[in-house]
Amino acid sequence: MNLSGTAIIECQKCSNELAIDGSDICMDAVSSEERGMGPEVGYEGELECECPKCGNNVLIRHSAWEYPVGALNYSENEVEGGQLIEGFKDLDFSFQEEIYSFDEEFELYLPEKKIIITNLETSVDLLLAELARSPDLIYSIASRKFEELIAHIFSKQGFSVELTKRTRDGGRDIIALRNDLGIPVKYLIECKHYAKKNPVSVEVARALYGVQLQEGANKSVIATTSYFTRDTKKFVTAQNTTEWHMSLKDYQDIVGWLKSSSNG
Hints:
The protein is α+β, with helices and mostly antiparallel strands. It is built from 5 helices and 16 strands. It folds into 2 domains: 2-94, no CATH class; 132-263, Trna Endonuclease, Chain: A, domain 1 (3-Layer(aba) Sandwich), CATH 3.40.1350.
């Protein structure tokens, strides 16, 4: 599902009005329920940004339901850090099939090659190769697929990986374990599949760092398809003054991972 148009949010701290471009919100299918005229599919997407005037963090979360196929049945917006002045309700929605998709049995479908591969390792390796050649295609996969991709990259580095259940609480999407020279190492990885213009806010880093301390992990990593705010970088630098606790990996870093992993 692609979202277009503009929403206007009033910052709750300084009353500045922010214009949110719908194309910057990645909408993912999160539910499906069979009804009389076919499946009703639920979509969710969110975007975090900073008010350019006061630096306040603002989040907009958009939910929409497609029913019947190709028609918008209902949509709603949820805002944190501000008040919605004008929403997406009168905008054009288009529903498109993902370029790459995994079903519950980990099938990978490449439309242009007209092939379906059911072996998980082969499927992800093929996806890695495709993304290494055309990195911007990473914005066409769903958020969960991005998490699976990052987990596979860590697996190729010798980690035993576990994808955690999807929640809105944040904290970590992947737990990666490895034994380095007889010493057990635990990484926590938080994945943010954001649009290019949607930076990762400092709240994400704070939440991950809190979970890292609670679980006693050696290191935490935030991997994103976008970039990090100045406050996020400052926070991580402050935590790394004595030990290398946290690491930030932006779009360029992910591209490097894709290329090295596809060649490995």
